[in-house]
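The pair is quoted verbatim as follows:
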Amino acid sequence: MGGASLRGIRVLLIGSLGLNLLFGGMLLGAFLRPDGPVMAPPPRPAAEAPLAALARALPPAERRAILGEARDRRGDRGRDQREMAASELAALLRAEPFDPAAVSALIEEQARSVRESEAALRAALVERLGTMTPAERLALAERVEAEARRGGRR
């Protein structure tokens, strides 16, 4: 082998080493970030997309008002009710003997409560949409389409 071919191989090896170090440094840097590697959010379920796009398209004040109306409709006790349910679940999990039927009943009660909350929220939303002028609904429809295209990414 001549001096020129050894020189070419040496340049290729150094270039390859440099690229490997660059890639390894980028990968290591991503994992050493204080907030971890940047990853895309998980995809939203398809059934959620239209309602989620509508919620994101509403101005924050409208969203708060609709949530307040929904709470009023169902007589929400909020945090106290959630803490009480969590305490009850913890007690059931600690109980000896363990009672699967009691845990199942509590979980079913929570599921019923969630369904009632969702129904109250839908009713408040539809009621609020019914009070909008055609121009307001048109503007909202355009924001909904934009949100759906964007998929919740900001």
About this structure: The chain has two domains: 1-39, 49-150. Residues 78 and 97 are 31 Å apart (CA to CA). The chain has six helices and no strands. The helical segments are 3-32, 49-57, 60-74, 78-94, 100-130, 134-150.
